[in-house]
Write a structure and sequence with these properties.
By secondary structure, the chain is mostly helical. The protein is 58% helix and 8% strand. The chain has a two-stranded antiparallel ribbon with strand order 1-2. Helix 1 runs antiparallel to helix 5. The chain is elongated and about 55 Å long.
Length: 127
């Protein structure tokens, strides 16, 4: 039987199993990093296109530029992102998630919420 202290870890394990089965992108650490960086940039800059370049969004001291670029190419080939040149600086490119990736992120968030709601009370923020 799982005690209260173990519930959050058990829920995270269940989420990890769901991610492994449904989000092949998250099977590699670089893929996981790229996915969450894109998600963070999308959610926190949803009201306007960010002026942050690819390097600024995806920078991580442990992953090579080559590994990140290969993962971005995979995402582009799968129709999950497009890369566009900045209007301010034609040398810089930005990641634009496609509706396919946005739907995938929404499904991921919905699954996460359902898993958390099984054992935890989710409080809505008052506006």
């Amino acid at each position: 039987m799982i005690n209260d202290k173990q519930k959050i870890l058990a829920t995270l394990v269940e989420l990890s199993d769901w991610e492994w089965a449904n989000l092949p992108l998250l099977k590699t650490v670089v893929g996981r990093h790229v996915y969450y960086c894109i998600a963070q940039d999308t959610f926190f800059n949803a009201s306007h296109q960010t002026d942050r370049s690819l390097k600024q969004v995806l920078n991580h001291p442990e992953y090579t530029d080559r590994a990140v670029r290969m993962k971005l190419r995979e995402l582009e080939d799968e129709g999950l992102i497009t890369r566009v040149y900045s209007e301010n600086d034609k040398r810089a490119r930005h990641i634009v998630p496609t509706p396919k990736l946005l739907d995938l992120m929404a499904h991921h968030a919905e699954t996460m919420q359902k898993l958390l709601e099984k054992d935890f009370i989710i409080l809505e923020k008052e506006t």
